[in-house]
Amino acid sequence: MWNSSSECRVVRELCDDRLCPYEDEESDWSPIHDVVFNGRILTLQKLITQVNSSTVDGRTALTEACSKGHVACVLLLLQHGASPQGRDWSSSPIHWAAAKGHPECVKALVQHRADVDQHIDKLGSPLHLACTSQQLSTVRKLLFSPSGANVNRDVAGESPLHTAARLSSPELVSVLLDHGADRLLVNSEGKRPLDLTSPDSETWRLLKEAGGSQTK
């Protein structure tokens, strides 16, 4: 029978020689958070009834699994009713997966109706975070998803293409342009993506050839 004593034993085994967070009565992590953190799929199956338990700051087991890239855990959690939608940065599985560069986690979330364009204040969409972290494979996964991430969605006036230009990433710039990124969009400073690049760089050349020096 799976009971509280069994749960504590599993937690002790998972913690090994390190300090176990559950020994602290003030801790708001549940055993399922630690299991997912360590990618223990078999133990997760036993704890699955706690699928949507969360910490004080809103982090669920699914959020943790996505941040660590444990795809098997992500799939199992989703299959057992884990909510794919978070309310903010700390609790949004798809934002964590995008920022950490876990495209297969993004794929699983999208298949379970996570909002590929979910906007969080000051952070923007998953695509913004994937670009900021220069996670090219995740950027591709978001853009090629069935609903297709909005390539021109801005945060504080900055589009994903502005971010890619600032980072001088020709790979990101190329894939964003291929998916319809507006090369003439101006940010809050009145600058186009081209204006944020170094002259004669590969990124500058790509934007120049795409007509990025024109005016609307």
From TrEMBL:
InterPro entries: Ankyrin_rpt, Ankyrin_rpt-contain_sf. The keyword Repeat applies. Transmembrane segments: none annotated. Pfam families: Ank (PF00023), Ank_2 (PF12796). ANK repeats lie at residues 57-89, 89-121, 156-188. Signal peptide: none annotated. The keyword Aminoacyl-tRNA synthetase does not apply. Residues 191-216 are annotated as: Disordered. Keywords: ANK repeat, Repeat. This is Uncharacterized protein. It comes from Nothobranchius furzeri.
